[in-house]
Amino acid sequence: MRAYRSEAVKAISLYGDMHRFIPVYAFWEGASVAEITVNHRKRASGKSKYNISRTYKVLLDLLTIKFLRDYSTRPSYIFGGIGLFLCFCASVLAAVSVAKKILFGIFIHKDPLMLFAVMFFLMGTFCILEGLLAEIIIRFYHESTHKPIYSVKERINF
Fold first, then answer.
1. Most CB within 10 Å of its CB: which of 35, 55, 65, 90?
2. Which long-range contacts (CB under 8 A, 24 or more apart) does 48-57 make?
3. What is the pLDDT of residues 94-108, one digit of tens each?
4. Following DSSP, what letter does each residue of 51-84 receive, concatenated?
5. How confident is the model at residue 4 (pLDDT cuts 50, 70, 90)?
6. Is residue 94 in a domain?
7. Is the domain of 76 the same as that of 139?
8. Residue 24, Cβ density class (10 Å: 0-12 exposed, 13-18 middle, ≥19 buried)
9. pLDDT per position as a tens digit, 105-154
């Protein structure tokens, strides 16, 4: 069992199965999280319904929390990073395909590496554009809800 400061918990909006991560959300809102020892009793009857399939759901929820924490105010960092990586891979594949043409006389239109290079370049471009669109959506969200991006614990001399 854990104890939280009530103001921080009230600021948290939970949905889905995110109740598992209330301590994480409370900590992000500035609450101090502490553990309290409790007396657990053995199950009187029945069998636990917690199985391996629920573990996958928890992992996906953890990824969601990680994404929300690190990239909710700057989504272009993750999408742009993925896009730049894909464009770099496209450049390498295109260079290899051109080198095969120069060295071995293999026609570029018969080389599948060039098709992969084009595909990776398009995917990278789309990821970068998706990051820019996500930035616009995030800005509209913060401006329309007037929700502060950062929370200030204490102001001095204001």
1. 90
2. 57/17
3. 999 999 889 988 888
4. -HHHHHHHHHHHHHHHHHHHHSS-THHHHHHHHH
5. very low
6. yes
7. yes
8. middle
9. 888 877 899 999 999 999 999 999 999 999 999 888 878 877 666 667 77
User: What tokens does 63 get?
Assistant: 């990824």
Phi-psi region of 105 (alpha: psi -120 to 50; beta: other; left: phi over 0): left
Q: Are residues 82 and 67 in the same domain?
A: no
Does 20 share its domain with 65? yes
- DSSP SS3 for 150: coil
Residue whose pair of structure tokens reads 């800005």 in the numeric block: 139
Cα–Cα distance, 102 to 153 (Å, whole number)? 63
Half-sphere exposure of residue 55, counting CA atoms within 13 Å on the CB side? 2
Residues contacting residue 37 through CB under 8 Å, at least 6 positions apart: none
